[in-house]
Specification:
seven-stranded antiparallel beta sheet, eight-stranded antiparallel beta sheet, about 280 residues, mainly beta, globular, 3 helices
């Protein structure tokens, strides 16, 4: 008997019945494309009809049951992973919704429809959100940066890098950019970098995650899929430079498009945690 459940794979979205080799897990799935939203509600073209027949949701990524073996019930809250330092949701202001690291708008920055609610929108002229230095924003031994992004213009067509977020300082990098190959790249230390492989497109939301562990490794995820990983032998030094969104305070490289749900964690999130955040939005 097929249980009321859905299966998820990054490349396929929600899809039909599938067995995952080596796990013994079989998901019987509604043949529709949807996504969990925060709070566990299902979003799909047939949303209301599906709610009436689906009582529980099983999430699988690469054979892994994301909820630790327990299906996620519709209506069950999807909570933030531990060690979230700041979350900038762009709901009509640049405030930190979980802490006190509130941003300030520098130059032309507006708000538009986002991945969740509203998003920061940038016109490529150099406007940015600037978050002043505080001890809680200091990068020490490890960290995770995360944001949803949507481009209105491709870096490859503009002929310049576009800055998503981070902290700029010559010889002491800690930032995510999209470069002229239209791929996301994460920089730390003195130009040490790791790149994704997905070419971003205009008018499409992409979830970017970058993780850093001093003297160990940096990684880049696009839509919760690990696309780049590199061993490093350096550490990001302490700095009083601000954290910025949409343009660098040093290099410029203005973003043209929208940025939403910007997060900073004080540790390296696991692949499971990154996937849960991605699926929840």
């Amino acid at each position: 008997m097929c249980p009321d459940a859905l299966c998820w794979e990054p490349a396929l979205g929600w899809h039909g019945k599938k067995a995952f080799p080596g796990t013994g897990a079989v998901g019987c799935c509604v043949t529709s494309v949807g996504r969990l939203t925060r709070g566990g509600q299902l979003k799909a073209p047939e949303e209301e009809a599906m709610r009436s027949i689906i009582s529980r949701v099983s999430l699988f990524i690469a054979g892994l049951t994301l909820t630790g073996g327990c299906p996620l019930a519709l209506g069950q809250s999807v909570t933030e992973p531990p060690d979230l330092v700041s979350l900038w949701t762009a709901e009509g202001n640049p405030h930190d919704s979980v802490g006190t690291n509130h941003g300030q708008l520098q130059g032309p920055v507006a708000y538009a429809a986002g991945r969740v609610g509203e998003a920061f929108t940038f016109d490529g002229s150099g406007g940015r959100v600037e978050i002043p230095y505080s001890p809680s924003l200091a990068v020490s031994s490890e960290a995770t940066l995360m944001a949803w992004v949507s481009l209105d213009e491709l870096p490859s067509l503009r002929g310049q890098f576009m800055y998503v977020l981070g902290r700029s300082q010559s010889g002491n990098d800690f930032d995510i950019q999209v470069e002229t190959d239209d791929q996301a790249k994460f920089y730390v230390c003195a130009g040490v970098s790791v790149s994704g492989t997905t070419a971003l497109r205009t008018g499409t939301w992409f979830h970017l995650t970058a993780t850093y562990r001093a003297g160990d490794r940096i990684e880049v995820y696009v839509n919760a899929t690990k696309e780049g990983s590199r061993a490093i032998h350096c550490s990001v030094a302490g700095s009083s430079s601000p954290l910025t969104i949409g343009a660098s305070s040093v290099w410029g490289r203005p973003w043209n498009g929208r940025v939403d749900q910007v997060r900073l964690f004080s540790r390296v999130l696991s692949e499971r945690e990154i996937a849960l955040v991605y699926l929840a939005e």
